[in-house]
Amino acid sequence: MQPEAPPPEDGLVLSTALGSVEGGGRLSVREALEAPRGGAWAGELSVAASRLEFTYRWKKRLRAVVEFDVVGDLDLKDAFVWLKISKGFAVRAGRFKVPLSLVELESAQALPLVRRGLLRDVLDDALGFTGRSAGAQVEWKCSGCARDLKLRAGVWQTRDSDKKIALSKGLGLVPALRGTWGTGNWEVGASAFLQPAGANTNSERNSWMTGLDVRHTLPLGQATLRTWAELLTGRAAFLGGTEGPLLTGRALTALRLGGEGKGAAYLEPFLMLSALDPDLDRSEDRVWEGAVGLNAGQWRRWRVQAQFELRSAGADVPPSLVALEEDLASRRALMVQLEVGF
């Protein structure tokens, strides 16, 4: 479930009788070196993110969030209004993340990763099943339950080059829902997503995806072990030439040494494994990726990150995936990033 953003501990806060306005952001500078299979290493120094976020709050009933990236052209990220309508119920409308993948829903600052890798390339860039879109969502949280039970259901506008889609084709709206159950340091979630035929101009069949995931935090004295795992299956009309269902999964674990409070020094090695099978009825189309890395800095203030990725693709990967700027070609990658939060 997309986590709620808590008020900043020491960021910019302007309080008035009509509510409060909070400001914050982050800046990431990255050097990325990549070498495709059989190719030479090549690198690029870039500003990976330059985010500014402003949040207006009125009591515990109303929240409005605007986040944008100021690298190059002004790029709007989040822009939504959240309103509590009764005990346990709220609505959200605007532009925000589709609640399908656990790791994609997490904020970049909460994850140990430099980048999310294979499943980001597939679920977001290729299929458009995750990421941010205009939508409206109803949210429910059980106020009388002994466990933390939450449900979300809504519709989002499909990402399509043709901005207007006929009413007879459903206006390009795609429904999604997500439920989570938490107890102690565990949270278990289930998600579902449906993209009806006609939601995209080039689609003649339904696309759908369902997923199960788990998040766990384990305190170990002065250290904390953090783990995310997810498994998703479905069908994607974008993957031309595939007939069987697809299966994809990802597991990420990180051991944080130190960092007990904001600003505390810490060291955090991490490991992520990802896999994609575009068609379970075929055997030579699988893609694997392993990533290992290390973070060091002051918790939630700044960090230096290093991440090494190794990706291997089968000989029969659908051309629609390989064509994504070589994102799914077999490759090696090394990234070093400095990130500062404010």
Describe this structure in words.
- The protein has 342 residues and is mainly beta.
- The chain has one domain: Porin (Beta Barrel).
- Helix content is 5%, strand content 58%.
- The protein is built from 3 helices and 17 strands.
- It has a 16-stranded antiparallel barrel.
- A hairpin with a 5-residue loop joins β4 and β5 (75-86).
- The longest helix is centred in the middle third of the chain and has 9 residues, at 118-126.
- The chain is globular and about 60 Å long.
- The two termini are 24 Å apart.
Short account of what is shown:
The chain has 342 residues and is mainly beta.
Q: Report the CATH topology name.
A: Porin
Numbering strands along the chain, what is their spatial order in the largest sheet?
2-3-4-5-6-7-8-9-10-11-12-13-14-15-16-17
Chain-averaged pLDDT: 89
Alpha-beta content class: mainly beta
- Which ranges are low-confidence, i.e. pLDDT below 50, for 5 or more consecutive residues? 1-7
Largest sheet: 16 strands, antiparallel, barrel
The overall number of domains is 1
Number of helices: 3
Helical proportion?
under 10%
SSE topology sketch:
Blueprint: E1 12-16, E2 19-36, E3 42-58, E4 62-69, E5 75-86, E6 89-97, H1 102-105, H2 118-126, E7 132-141, E8 148-157, E9 173-183, E10 186-195, E11 207-220, E12 223-235, E13 246-258, E14 265-277, E15 287-298, E16 302-313, H3 319-322, E17 331-341
Antiparallel strand pairs: 1-2, 2-3, 2-17, 3-4, 4-5, 5-6, 6-7, 7-8, 8-9, 9-10, 10-11, 11-12, 12-13, 13-14, 14-15, 15-16, 16-17
